Amino acid sequence: MTEPRHRLPYSAIVDRPPLALPRNARMVIWSVLNLEVWDIGRPMARQLLPAPNGIPALPDVPHWSWHEYGMRVGFWRLYDLYRRFGISPTVSINARVCEDYPRVAGACRDAGWEFMGHGFEQRPIHQEPHPDATIARSMSVIERFTGRRPKGWLGPGLTETLDTPDQLSAAGIRYIADWVHDDEPTEIATKHGPLVTLPYSIECNDITMFVVQHHEARYWTEKCIDTFDQLYVESVTRPKFLTLAVHPYISGHPSRIRHLEAVYDHIKGADGVLYWNGEQLLDWHEHSRVHA
After folding, report:
1. Which residues pair with 91 in a beta bridge?
2. Which domains does the chain have, with CATH numbers?
3. What is the CA radius of gyration of the chain?
4. Which residue of 32, 49, 114, 182 has the lowest C-beta tally within 10 Å?
C-alpha cells in the first residue's frame, strides 16, 4: 500500500508556471451531476431525519424514498436546467443506475453527457470486500450501457483505500476526482503510470452545504458566486477551475433549483469562461503536458 504523500510530491501553486487555456480563456466550470442507487437492504448513504429513539431504522423507508424523489422528479429539473444553459455535465454515476433507472441513465446518454464511474452502488469503496472487482464491474456495466468505457472516477463519498489509485489505473481510469488538494489538475503516481487528479469540490457541493452544514438555499448561491468571483479575479494571472457538484434529491428540490440557476446566471455574464466536462479537462491537461 502506498500513502498519498508518496504518490504526490508537495508543490506550491505560486512556484508553478501559469497554465494556458485555449482562446485565452480564464476559467473552466466543471458541472458534476451525481446519480446514485441506495439499496433499501442497507443503511442509507445520508439522513435528514434523526433515527427514532436513537436506533437506526432498517429498512430506512423515509430516506430511501427521499433519494427516490430525486430520481423520479429532481433529476428532471436539473436536466432541464442544464439543457437551457447549454451545459453538458459530467454524470458521476453508480453503475447500478443503468440497471435500476434506465430512463434516467438513458436521458444522460442520449444527451451526450460524459459518464464518470462512481462505484456500482452508493457504498463506500473501503467497505467493499473486493474493491478491484467492484471497479471492474462498474466499468463493464457503464461501458455496456453507453458503448464507451469511462475515463474518470469519483469514489462513493470520495472514499478510497490506499490501493485504490493503483486499482483504478489498472482498470483503465485516467482521471480521478477524490483528491481535493489543489486548484489545478495534478498527477499522482500509480503502479501503472500517472493518474490525473481533477479539482473536484467538497465546498461548492450541495451535500456539504445543505445536508452537513444545514445552510439555507440562498447561501448556496452566495457561496458559489463568492467563490467564482474570487477565482475570476485570480484568473487574470493564471487560469482557474470551479466545480459545481449537485445531487437530484438535494438540488432538484423545488426550494433549491432556482438558487443553482442563479449561480449559472451570474457566471454566464463573465467573459472567457469555458464549460467543460471531465474528459475535456483531461484531454486539455494531457495535450498541455505533451507540448510543455
Report:
1. 33, 115
2. 22-290 (3.20.20.370)
3. 19
4. 49
Q: How far apart (Å, rounded) are the C-alpha atoms in residues 90 and 59? A: 31
Inter-residue contact 156 to 71 (CB < 8 Å): no
Nearest-CA neighbor of 222 among 271, 270, 263? 263
Determine the pLDDT at residue 48: 87
- Cα of first residue to Cα of last residue in the chain, in angstroms, is 32
Q: Does the reported pTM lie above 0.70?
A: yes
Q: For residues 199 and 177, what is the distance between their CA atoms, to the nearest angstrom?
A: 7
Cis amide leading into 239 (omega within 30): no
Rounded CA-CA distance 96/144 in Å is 12
Cell output for 186: 495534478
- CB contact at 8 A, 278 and 114: yes
Identify the pLDDT of residue 292: 54
